[in-house]
Amino acid sequence: MTPTATPTRREQILKEAARLFAERGFHGVGVDEIGAAVGISGPGLYRHFAGKDAMLAELLVGISEQLLEGGRQRTEAADGVAPEAVLDSLIAGHIDFALDDRPLITLHDRELDRLRDADRKRVRRLQRQYVELWVEAVRRLYPEFAEPAARATVHAVFGLLNSTPHLGRPGALPGRAGMSELLHRLARGAFAAGAGVPARG
């Protein structure tokens, strides 16, 4: 879905389910409440999803697929350009996710273990592939970066970027542009520090 597209009913349901699950926990939210949030009856949700478990799976598997696909598109679009631009593009894409999809970060942290084994393994597999995109981009920019250390630093940077749900009230933070710029500088600084070289940019 593009930013200007009208969300489908299914997308509306998932967005409200993510918000409610993040605010009150998976077991603290009923189907009727999710339905009320999008203006349909609780039973009406079953035309779109088999139940809350299916919503949770689609949310967590879906965002993992979107991050991986977005990362692949960014690295392919940057083919032939400076390694710095590739890493900057990956960082920018993940920052957009971290700022715009905070409920999904909270949901992943709290509820991943509630998924069926097959769905949880799928999420983990997608996440590993996403990490490897970053490891390759980091090591292209910093060839001296040993692979295990680069991978550990990628995970650490994800922790930094995904801290957005815990940064306090929105009004107490810089505006979106300022927060995006700050997170980008911090991420680039972490990679440079991990590689043992001065930060660039």
UniProtKB/TrEMBL annotation:
* The entry's DNA-binding region: 30-49
Asked whether the keyword DNA-binding is assigned, the reply is: yes
Q: Which Gene3D superfamilies match?
A: Homeodomain-like, Tetracycline Repressor, domain 2
Q: Which Gene Ontology molecular function entries are recorded, alphabetically?
A: DNA-binding transcription factor activity; transcription cis-regulatory region binding
Stretches assigned to the HTH tetR-type domain: 7-67
Under the heading InterPro entries, the entry gives: Homeodomain-like_sf, HTH-type_TetR-like_transc_reg, HTH_TetR, KstR2_TetR_C, Tet_transcr_reg_TetR-rel_C_sf
**Domain of life of the organism in this record?**
Bacteria
Q: Which UniProt keywords apply?
A: DNA-binding
Question: PANTHER family, from UniProt?
Answer: HTH-TYPE TRANSCRIPTIONAL REGULATOR RUTR, TRANSCRIPTIONAL REPRESSOR MCE3R
In Swiss-Prot or TrEMBL terms, this protein is called TetR/AcrR family transcriptional regulator
